[in-house]
Write a structure and sequence with these properties.
The two termini are about 20 Å apart. The longest helix has 28 residues, at about 1-30. The radius of gyration is 19 Å and the shape is flat. Helix 1 packs parallel to helix 7 (about 135-160) and helix 3 (about 45-60) runs parallel beside helix 6 (about 105-125). The chain is an all-alpha fold. It has helices spanning about 1-30, 30-40, 45-60, 65-70, 75-100, 105-125, 135-160, 165-175, 175-195. It is about 85% helix and about 0% strand.
Length: about 200
């Protein structure tokens, strides 16, 4: 029923949001160190691009949930029409931003486009009333990001360890208690209802 589907949707959305946040934030903050580790010949543009693409990955990750829901309900025509619009927008953004900022402009165009796709898919899901609108669930996910991003910024700024990847690991470890705090109870309840 609609209530069960909504519960699965919001749980999946929060989990994907959390995992994508845990992956992208440390990589954005330590993009220079990661690029220096992977490549012997790199530059500031490449490091900036990594940060922008990780941000694009974060916003795109939500479409794995909303896009799957739209596909399951047969809203392919709406999805394809919206995607065509964003492709045109992406081409236009690339034309202007690449001329202005080169490869960084292309990455920024990707971030903007993926952000619009993510927001658009969510709006289409709710406009078609495929699931219940629970603003509190989206707000909780935003609060999670608002809390964790500054914490990671503080860690990267203070750099308590001399070796950067220890600080990177510490930044990752910050997410663990919040995972259990925000999601574990909800996951446990679903498992109990479905299989126990």
């Amino acid at each position: 029923n609609s209530s069960e589907l909504s519960k699965l949707y919001y749980t999946g959305f929060s989990l994907v949001w959390f995992v994508a946040l845990a992956i992208s934030v440390p990589l954005i903050l330590y993009r220079s160190e990661v690029m220096d580790l992977l490549y012997t010949d790199t530059n500031l543009d490449a490091k900036r691009v990594l940060g922008l693409l990780m941000a694009a990955y974060f916003v795109k990750s939500t479409t794995y949930i909303s896009g799957t829901l739209l596909t399951a309900f047969g809203r392919l025509k709406t999805m394809n029409l919206f995607m065509m619009i964003t492709v045109v927008l992406n081409v236009m953004l690339n034309y202007f931003l690449i001329h202005q900022d080169g490869i960084s402009g292309a990455a920024l165009a990707t971030l903007i486009t993926q952000g619009l796709v993510a927001i658009g898919f969510i709006l289409i899901c709710h406009r078609n009333r495929l699931i219940e609108l629970r603003i509190s669930s989206y707000v909780k996910d935003l609060v999670l990001a608002i809390v964790l991003i500054p914490l990671c910024l503080v860690i990267s700024h203070l750099a308590p360890f001399d070796i950067w990847y220890f600080n990177f690991a510490l930044c990752l470890s910050v997410f663990i208690p919040f995972f259990f705090l925000f999601n574990f109870v909800r996951i446990k309840n679903i498992i109990r209802e479905k299989w126990l």
